[in-house]
Automatic annotation (TrEMBL), chain A:
UniProt GO molecular function: ATP binding; ATP hydrolysis activity
CDD domains registered for this protein in UniProt: ABC_NikE_OppD_transporters
InterPro entries assigned: AAA+_ATPase, ABC_transp_ATP-bind, ABC_transporter-like_ATP-bd, ABC_transporter-like_CS, Oligopep_ABC_C, P-loop_NTPase
Annotated Acidic residues bias: 291-300
Cited PANTHER family: D,D-DIPEPTIDE TRANSPORT ATP-BINDING PROTEIN DDPF-RELATED, TRANSPORT ATP-BINDING PROTEIN
Protein name: ABC transporter ATP-binding protein
From TrEMBL, chain B:
Matches recorded under InterPro entries: BPD_transp_1_N, MetI-like, MetI-like_sf
Subcellular compartments: Cell membrane
Protein's membrane topology: Multi-pass membrane protein
GO cellular component: plasma membrane
Domain of life of the native organism: Bacteria
PROSITE patterns recorded: ABC_TM1 (PS50928)
Residue ranges of every copy of the ABC transmembrane type-1 domain listed in the record: 95-304
UniProt record similarity statement: Belongs to the binding-protein-dependent transport system permease family.
GO molecular function terms attached to this record: dipeptide transmembrane transporter activity
Transmembrane segments: 12-30, 99-122, 134-157, 177-200, 235-262, 282-307
Name under which the protein is recorded: ABC transporter permease
Keywords of the record: Cell membrane, Membrane, Transmembrane, Transmembrane helix, Transport
TrEMBL record, chain C:
Protein name according to UniProt: ABC transporter permease
UniProt keyword list: Cell membrane, Membrane, Transmembrane, Transmembrane helix, Transport
Transmembrane annotation, as ranges: 27-49, 91-116, 136-154, 160-177, 263-282
Subcellular location: Cell membrane
Length: 589, 315, 300
């Protein structure tokens, strides 16, 4: 096995003072120049494995086994910090997940890149500035010359991640490790970053260990995939084999629940439980993958010309029965003025600019946009938590922008919200029964009845009634999101607003929560507003969609239409950038 | 950056104005009659009225406040009702003494605390780190006047290395000045060093957990080197804040040390003025101390953007 | 069928971290609590029993060292030091309780109100004014304020307690404000608002329980500061007046006998240090308990 670039043998990691290891007997290898994806959900141990290779394990963890790297004498796990430091960046480099905190906030970008060249001393001192410029150019940094003098906070997340890649590849290491390098980025930025990583790794002929939770991402970048689950490797194989013929139940489950295009016999998304009947990613006719292919322009342009322009009227397009829409938003703008003392005065930020749309009763509307698109501000205005600068919002027969506090109260009885972060949206110091019954208390419902309804609701979201006496931290992310849904529905609202409800969840839990949401929307005849950055989720769940960018509505219409025939360039790039299993497999094979 | 500093400067001036009103109100209006206080309860009404007329106390408070502020701005803190002497020279002389004491103490505290705190953070799992933490925790609990008494017992009364009290201006003899400075400065600095050590340790521990330290190690720096190159400047921000607060605390806290070592600092003058019921002098000294505390806060505020480009660009 | 047992239990099972809800005790908290209990016990016992009366002078037994009759020795009038230490504990605790009480009761609501007002456009300026006033109050350290009070009124325990309490208000206001801002910005408060809870209900149900920990930690630290301030003031003769026993004045009176009877300085000094240490350690321990992120942060 001497020819392998990386060789991990029987790696077991145990936290100090704990009995049970968090990583069991992990063995893997990587040939020179090979690109391997390490797939797993949170807690699977994929990041620990990567940190062991870098010699960056936290001190409170004890590691056993061997990790050897071509060009490094001995076991990395036993090496001293001084020896490891020489190896890092020279033999193996790493790009981390969080672009916002991975760079020193007090140091200029150019200096941070120059530092890695200086440490290893392979570039002559006088050549360093030129080399820094080359590196910034090689990662396609816009205006690389002035980027050298910028501080990290002056850059976007995508740009910082480019800088990280430039630093990681500065000394042409033999192996590059990427730990979820695109998870914190918007989809369109993610696409560029993934392409860039492939390009640069090929350019310096390095091996790649790519860590991610997203199967679709790994397929586009890697040759081989290693699947981890609960601290163990459960399966290894080529991308094609893993995608088309998974051997292990967990792999199949992960694959099935990642595929938002596939549904089981009952029209539900696959979960780990129902994964057995999953047939693998199929390129269904008319699905988004067509658009991602090269001839997208011909495909989408035709219908776009034929269709009459009907901007910003997603609701009306699908109601058709003539009744007034349940929600009506017209010309809504929201400007934020930054508040400062005395001398500070800045131009207002236009979070929303002239937004109009309507939603019919029983409709499922998806609102899609990347960070900064204004979708959260829109939600706040709809739910009466914030007021628009101008424009009108009507929900039912309530005029939200000018509603009295009693009108707002009755609005909130009809409109409830499920929030994004299952860990932040539940008060850590309250019992589940108190959390779920909170909306009922405000309505003045007696305790007996409250508890009865909480119990009923918890059963409806598949939670045990024993949960009532517990505190939020005693539940997993998926369960917390169920509690959050129970709280939203306990008052039997007409409208449910879901603000990225699954984006913080693991893939296998995501499909369970989405299925639950679908069932409840049917059972309670809800009107659903579903906000997400993930086109795949919206496509599965919603009949109509609004695409937002920079506070504007870019495009609106029925989900099918938009995906099949996007009229706007931005929508097209968004669809093209969204990783899908079938698309990824098609490009990989 | 310029707007930021201008903003802070305006806030400083506003705070100073409000503080002067508060001090004046506390000292000149609440207790009733300063002349009565100065002369004692058995003074005749005539004597009180004469004193009032002499110092303009019969004027309305607004005018008196205005006169006081204008006087201070031109460097005149007025005349003591009790001694009849001008207050300004007393304040100027004693402030210099206290400044020497306090600045020497904070420098000594920083010199002790920064390496010790950094070391305690780096060795946090070893007995050395734990010992430093425990010692600093105990050090915080020792009031500076107790530290002074212990130091006097050991180094003055037992070993005889330093005088147990007294003061000599540097111009009168630099050796004599230094040898009298040691015990007071060390008593002031030890406690502050203990407090600062804990802050430095926790700031360094926080910084060590930052992602950019991991990046620096991934670049090929050792843990220790990564801390020195990237960490310490980041850790400086919270430490500057604490050191500023400490300097302000020391300024007033030095009063007890000045009493113990019989040093003619501003604290000693303040205590003497309080004991003499010399309210005009108390009022002047308090205003000077508040002014210095606010100046220290202003300096700390201006240091932030110099250290941190994010604050520099925010304005 | 290896690897994953049943899916529901493996992936979405209840994670029982019940131990976290229990009061986690740590060494700092235990040692701190023991020291504080010791001082509270001294103060309580002094109401029922002391070895001698506080003013029982014995000219024959002046400036004695430890002996079976006088375990801590005697002072220049032959008064029993242990008795004085026990009485002194009362003053120390009383000053702390009153000063911290003033600061908690005034500072915490100010901080909460400032944070609540900051949410509304019409209240933002008021919030800013409150916090600016707070900053100005910070320019008056406890000792300075107490000296001013002693100058304006008669020096005594009362003005000292009030001055120390007022000087501690900004600390509580800041802690309460930043804690409240954090809670009000959280998603669970958004959820509560979306559930039609009124502002007072949110303050009581969500804000108070979530900032209580921070306020308790601050109270512990403020208690330590007030013990130091009272001792310092009494040392200067501006705090507790004779003949009421106080640790700070005992220390001050011991100064003239440093070369003949250093023990006289040792006892009050030791007890002041133990009291401060106790409250600081308790504060540290509570901080770890309430906020693991703030682990091992120092205090001043």
């Amino acid at each position: 096995m001497a020819e392998n670039l990386l060789e991990v043998r029987n790696l077991t990691i145990t936290p100090a003072g704990a009995e049970a290891p968090v990583l069991h007997d992990v063995s893997l290898s990587l040939a020179p120049g090979e690109r391997v994806g390490l797939i797993g959900e949170s807690g699977s141990g994929k990041s620990l494995t990567a940190q062991s290779v870098m010699g960056l394990l936290p001190e409170e963890l004890r590691a056993q086994g061997t990790v050897s790297l071509q060009g490094f004498a001995g076991n990395i796990l036993d090496a001293k910090e001084r020896t490891l430091a020489k190896m890092r960046s020279d033999l193996v480099s790493m790009v981390f997940q969080e672009p916002m905190s991975a760079l020193n906030p007090l140091m200029r970008i150019g200096d941070q890149i120059a530092e890695v060249l200086r440490i290893h001393g392979e570039v002559a001192r006088g050549d360093i500035p030129g080399r820094v410029l080359d590196l910034l150019t090689s990662v396609h940094m816009p205006d690389p010359n002035s980027a050298r003098y910028a501080y990290p906070h002056q850059m976007s997340g995508g740009q910082r991640q480019r800088v990280m890649l430039a630093i990681a590849l500065a000394n042409s290491p033999r192996l590059l490790i990427c730990d979820e390098p695109t998870t914190a980025l918007d989809v369109t930025v993610q696409k560029h970053m993934l392409d860039l990583i492939s390009e640069r790794v090929a350019a310096v002929q390095a091996g790649l260990l790519f860590i991610t939770h997203d199967l679709a991402v790994v397929a586009g970048v890697c040759d081989r995939v290693i699947v981890m689950y609960a601290g163990r490797i459960v399966e290894t194989g080529s991308v094609e084999q893993i995608f088309t013929d998974p051997q292990h139940d967990y792999t199949r489950g992960l694959l099935a629940s990642s595929d938002l295009d596939a549904t089981d016999a009952h029209g539900k998304l696959f979960t780990l439980k129902t994964a057995l009947s999953y047939a693998g990613p199929i390129d269904e006719a008319g699905s988004g993958e067509d658009v991602a292919s090269d001839d997208e322009d011909e495909q989408s342009d035709g219908p776009a010309v034929a269709r009459e322009p009907a901007p910003a009227s997603a609701g009306e397009a699908s109601t058709g029965d003539g009744s007034a829409p349940l929600i009506d938003v017209s010309g809504v703008s929201k400007h934020f003025r930054s508040r400062g003392l005395l001398l500070r005065r800045r131009s207002p930020v236009r979070a929303l600019d002239d937004i109009s749309f309507s939603v019919a009763s029983g409709q499922r509307l998806g609102i899609v946009g990347e960070s900064g698109s204004g979708k959260s501000t829109l939600l706040n205005i709809l739910s009466g938590l914030d007021r628009p600068t101008s424009g009108h919002v009507r929900v039912g027969d309530i005029r939200v922008e000018s509603a009295s506090s009693s009108a707002l109260r009755s609005l909130r009885e009809d409109l409830q919200i499920v929030f994004q972060d299952p860990f932040a949206s539940l008060d850590p110091r309250m019992r589940v029964e108190d959390i779920v019954s909170e909306p009922l208390i405000a309505r003045g419902i007696a305790r007996e009845e409250r508890l009865a309804r909480v119990e009923e609701m918890l059963l409806a979201v598949d939670l045990d009634t024993k949960a009532m006496r517990r505190y939020p931290h005693q539940f997993s992310g998926g369960q917390r999101q169920r509690i959050s849904i129970a709280r939203a529905l306990v008052t039997r609202p007409q409208i449910l607003v879901a603000d990225e409800p699954v984006s913080a969840l693991d893939v296998s839990v995501r499909s369970q929560v989405l299925n639950l949401l679908t069932d409840l929307v049917d059972d309670y005849a809800l009107t659903l507003l579903f906000v997400s950055h993930d086109l795949g989720v919206v496509k599965h769940l919603c009949s109509d969609v609004i695409v937002m960018k920079d506070g504007h509505i870019v495009e609106a219409g029925s989900t099918e239409d938009i995906y099949a025939h996007p009229r706007e360039e931005y929508t097209r790039s968004l669809i093209a950038a969204t990783p899908s299993l079938a698309g990824a497999l098609a490009s990989a094979t | 950056m310029i707007t930021y500093v201008a903003n802070r400067a305006i806030q400083f001036v506003l705070a100073l104005i409000v503080a002067s009103v508060v001090v004046f109100a506390l000292m000149s209006i609440l207790p009733g009659n300063a002349a009565q206080v100065a002369l004692g309860t058995n003074a005749t009404p005539d004597a009180v009225a004469a004193l009032e007329a002499q110092y303009g106390l019969d004027q309305p408070p607004v005018i008196r406040y205005f006169n006081w502020v204008v006087g201070m701005l031109s460097g005149d803190f007025g005349t003591s009702y009790v001694t009849g002497a001008a207050i300004t020279p007393v304040i100027v002389g004693s402030v210099q003494v206290t400044a020497i004491l306090v600045i020497a103490a904070i420098i000594l505290a920083i010199v002790i605390a920064v390496p010790l705190g950094t070391f305690a953070a780096l060795e946090q799992r070893n007995w050395i780190g734990v010992t430093i933490s425990a010692l600093s925790q105990i050090g915080i609990a020792v009031p500076n006047f107790l530290a002074a008494i212990i130091l006097v017992i050991i180094f003055s009364l037992t070993l005889g290395w330093f005088p147990s009290q007294g003061w000599m201006a540097p111009v009168e003899g630099f050796g004599g000045f230094l040898i009298r400075l040691v015990l007071p400065v060390v008593s002031l600095a030890l406690v502050q060093a203990a407090i600062l050590t804990r802050y430095v340790r926790s700031a360094v521990l926080d910084v060590m957990r930052e992602d950019y330290i991991r990046t620096a190690r991934a670049k090929g720096l050792t843990r220790t080197k990564a801390l020195f190159v990237h960490g310490l400047r980041n850790a400086a921000i919270p430490v500057i804040t604490v050191a500023g607060v400490q300097l302000a605390t020391l300024l007033v806290g030095a009063v007890i040390i000045e009493q113990i070592f019989v040093i003619p600092g501003i604290g000693s003058e303040l205590v003497r003025a309080v004991a003499n019921r010399d309210l005009v002098t108390v009022q002047g000294i308090v205003m000077v101390l508040v002014f210095l505390v606010l100046i220290i806060n202003l300096i700390v505020d201006v240091l932030y953007p110099i250290v941190d480009p994010r604050i520099r660009n925010a304005s | 069928m290896s690897g994953i047992p049943s899916t529901t239990s493996a992936v979405d099972a209840p994670v029982d971290r019940g131990s976290r809800t229990k009061l986690r005790l740590n060494a700092s908290m235990i040692i701190g609590a023991i020291l504080i209990l010791l001082i509270v016990a001294l103060a309580l016992v002094s109401f029922v029993w002391t070895p001698y009366g506080p003013s029982a002078v014995d000219p024959a037994a002046r400036l004695q060292s430890s002996s079976p009759e006088h375990p801590f020795g005697t002072d220049k009038f032959g008064r029993d030091t242990l008795t004085w230490i026990m009485y002194g504990a009362r003053i120390t605790l009383m000053v702390g309780i009153v000063a911290v009480g003033i600061a908690v009761l005034i500072g915490t609501p100010i901080g909460i109100i400032a944070a609540v007002f900051a949410q509304y456009p019409w209240g933002a300026w008021l919030s800013a004014v409150i916090m600016r006033a707070n900053d100005i109050l910070l320019a008056f350290p406890a000792l300075l304020l107490a000296i001013v009070f002693a100058a304006v009124y008669q020096p005594g325990t009362g003005p000292a307690m009030v001055a120390v309490g007022i000087a501690a208000i900004p600390g509580f206001a800041r802690v309460a404000r930043s804690g409240t801002m954090q809670v009000l910005g959280s998603e669970y408060v958004r959820a509560a608002k979306a559930s039609n809870r009124s502002a007072p209900a949110i303050a009581i149900v969500h804000v108070l329980p979530n900032i209580a920990g921070m306020v308790i930690v601050q109270a512990s630290v403020a208690f330590a500061i007030s013990v130091l301030a009272e001792a310092g003031l009494s040392f200067l003769g501006l705090g507790t007046q004779a003949p009421v026993p106080s640790w700070g004045r005992m220390l001050q009176e011991s100064q003239q006998f440093l070369s003949t009877q250093p023990l006289l300085a040792l006892w009050p000094g030791l007890f002041i240090a133990l009291a401060v240490l106790g409250f600081n350690l308790l504060g540290d321990g509570l901080r770890d308990r309430f906020d693991p992120k703030m682990e091992a942060r120092g205090n001043g």
